Amino acid sequence: MSAKEEIDKLTEELKVYQDKYYKEGISLISDNEYDRLTDRLIELEKEYPEFQHPDSPTKRVGSDLTNDFPEVRHTIPVLSLDKAYSDEAVLDFFSKSIQKEGGALSFAAEEKIDGISMVLYYEKGILVRAVTRGNGEVGNDVTPNIMTMPSVPLSLPESLDIAVRGEVYLEKADFERLNAAESDESKRAANPRNLAAGTVRRQKSSEACRVPLTIYCYEGFWNDKTQTPPDHIHILSKLKALGFRINPHLAFFDSDKEKAREKLASAGLDGDAYAFSEIDEFIKKKTAERKTLPYEIDGLVFKINELDVREKFGYTEHHPRWAIAYKFEAPQAETELLSITIQVGRTGRITPVAEIAPTKLGGSTIRRATLHNQEYIDELELAIGDIVSVSKRGDVIPAVESVIEKNDKGNTTFVLPSECPCCHTKIVQIGGLQYCPNYDCPDQVKGRIAYFASTDQMDIETLGPRTVELLYNAGILESIEDIYSADYSAAADLPGIGEKSIKLLEKGIKESLTRPFTTVLSSLGVADIGKKSAELLVRNGFDSIDKILDAADRGDPDSFASIPGFGEITGKRIVEAFSSDRLRATIEALRKAGLHMDSSLDREENAEEQTFSGQVWCITGSFKNFNPRSKALKEIEKRGGRTVSSVTSKTTHLLAGEGGGSKRADAERLGVRIVSEDEFMAMLGTKDDGEKHEDGQLFLF
Ligand code: IVH
Questions:
Q1: Which residues lie with the beta carbon below 6 Å from any ligand 1 atom?
Q2: Cα 55 to middle of ligand 1, angstroms
Q3: 611 against 219, higher pLDDT
Q4: pLDDT digit string, tens, across residues 365-414
Q5: Are 367 and 356 in contact (CB under 8 A)?
Q6: Residue 646 clears pLDDT 70, i.e. is over it
Q7: Residue 136 near residue 309, CB atoms below 8 Å
Q8: Phi/psi class of residue 607: alpha, beta or left (left: φ > 0; alpha: ψ in -120 to 50)?
Q9: Could you give the CA distance from residue 200 to residue 263 in angstroms, rounded to a whole number?
């Protein structure tokens, strides 16, 4: 037998023994015999390295050669996840995603294993590289160490080019055992993750091999997109079939439980099915289960199941827009309370805000935290100068959680002023909250105008809070209705506003005239009428402002209260709000200005010809007329086009602005039509009117 033949034979044989042992715990031969064969193969491979198989079973035992972990570039995006700290925030992620997609979505929920992020690259079914996350673009090649892990397939049953993401970790019991056996106390690791991280970077794979690391895989990226399974759960089941270790503690969320169950079953996966509404129950269950798991988890990961939607949503610079990590522990920091300022919102609500000594919290520096109301301050017995703990629990807005140390200056519990800090009207108490009752309070007026013009409402691009403040102070803009009748020429003299900016503002205002009735309705700032309830009103027959005003005139709260989700109190409040002369005057002025006060007006103006139907657009670079770039995407979608975040063979057009990176090269390579901004404007049927700001920013400042 030639050396090559002997290597081939031993490789084949040992692979069978290893598989049987690692997968089923069965030893087909004695340990001695196994060691003898392995030693022989190692010897032969040393002498004839050219005959060594890339997935040789000797990789499992590691070598004494020194690893140098060269840096290599990832070929898939290796980003981390956006975080949430409450079940509301997860639910919010569900509903915002569904809203953005404008259709049904389902979500997979996985345990967030606290280990080391790893990408396994396979070429033609052979493991060629195992790379740490690194900075997301470049990581360390730790292949020899990862190859010693029995749970990592060295070769696959199919000749695939794929990248698989997973978490390398160490079970708690193994960590305890190994740490206890370490006589040198200074060498003991603080937790399983640290020991796993150290092992992954051990210089000798023969040593790494002694730590029983394992892996759970959770994402797969097929080089040939046409081979990609249809959705996330099918990816998981395919990975499982290929021999990867998949965490069986999978949960699946859909609009109802039955649907969720069916989808899981369609992928042949076990797992728990949930309806969206059961999110708090799920999080409670997992929080309790956490301690009993054999490995450490620091949260739960929620991922959109539909891959085409993932592609459409794409990535920010730091994380995918299609997934979120719920973390069990909210980041906390300790800092000093310097002072408390009082904010007056657009509804008159008074909110005390803690001004704190700047501190780092969950990756950003914070200077302010909410204190909710007087009751909250009383509960904490909070005084200026106290050392407090702040956290990012429920919201993105940090909150003061507790007092760590009382101040030594003799300051006592803070008491809200009795007057509105803005207009000096006496503050009133409504159900535990404080309000300024003056409708004309400047802070409220400015708040109402800014809310009306905000992106989520009428979306008058240039009219942000700072511009509102400036125009209000100059006496140019004193109410919502003023937006449509004000003489902005006087604003040209204001510092920071030039003629160009005014033109832009006027253009934004003009564009806002086409917003649908539901948007106009929710922008009025009536308590209880946000986007959702405005839509509910319209769907339940209140499809014009006159119908709402009529019901208010009749003093008929029941016609609102009977709408599912509204109730008696809301009904009464709507009647009360629309009976106000002030609001009615605003409505009449807006009607005169040409805003949609009837949803029948919406359809005629909004229907764009579907000139982009069947087309798939990708976008790169920055634009003069579309800032943020999502504006261009909206235009494409309005005309029936589909938008994607990367150029593939299915992409039909690349809209290329200034700058832009590799997408242009991809488009050229794939023969995708590249469209310039000017061409695009022509395709939209909009001429560039030259009214853009020099730096392409559509802001006044
Ligand atoms: S998905 C683009 N799923 O958590 C895909 N990550 O902060 C993003 N992690 O770096 C990752 N368990 O190392 C995903 N089931 C899981 C995970 C998981 C642990 C880690 C991963 C990632 C970090 C995100």
A1: 79-81, 110, 112-113, 117, 133, 167, 218-219, 301, 320, 323, 325
A2: 27
A3: 219
A4: 899 998 989 989 998 999 999 999 998 876 567 889 899 999 999 999 99
A5: yes
A6: yes
A7: no
A8: beta
A9: 36
In this model, does residue 690 exceed pLDDT 70? no
CA nearest ligand 1 atom 16, residue = 112
What structural domains does the chain harbor?
Answer: 3-60 (1.10.287.610), 82-327 (3.30.470.30), 332-435 (2.40.50.140), 442-512 (1.10.150.20), 517-607 (1.10.150.20), 616-683 (3.40.50.10190)
Tokens 């081979």 belong to: 227
Supply the pLDDT for residue 700. 24
Q: What's the CA-to-centroid distance between 310 and ligand 1, angstroms?
A: 15
Gap between the Cα atoms of 522 and 615, Å rounded: 33
* Residue 257 to residue 271: CA distance in whole angstroms: 12
**Position in ligand 1 atom list of the atom nearest CA 320:** 2
392 given a catalytic annotation: no
φ/ψ of 3, rounded to 5, equals: -60, -40
How many C-beta atoms lie closer than 10 Å to residue 198's C-beta?
A: 14
At residue 691 the predicted structure's pLDDT band, cuts being 50, 70 and 90, is very low
| Per-residue model confidence as pLDDT tens digits over 315-343 | 887 899 999 999 998 888 999 999 999 99
Catalytic one of 59, 83, 112, 286: 112
HSE value, Cβ hemisphere, 13 Å, CA-based, for 193 = 10
| Class of residue 185 by CB neighbours under 10 A (exposed 0-12, middle 13-18, buried 19+) | exposed
* Tokens, residue 614: 């069947």
Q: Which of 69-73, 597-601, 628-632 has the lowest mean pLDDT?
A: 628-632
pLDDT at 126 > cutoff 80: yes
pLDDT at 425 over 90: yes
Closest among 471, 461, 464 to 497, alpha carbons compared: 471
What lies within 8 Å, CB to CB, of 409 at 6+ separation is: 384, 385
Mean pLDDT of 176-202: 87
Give alpha helix (H) positions in 524-580. 531-539, 545-553, 558-561, 568-579
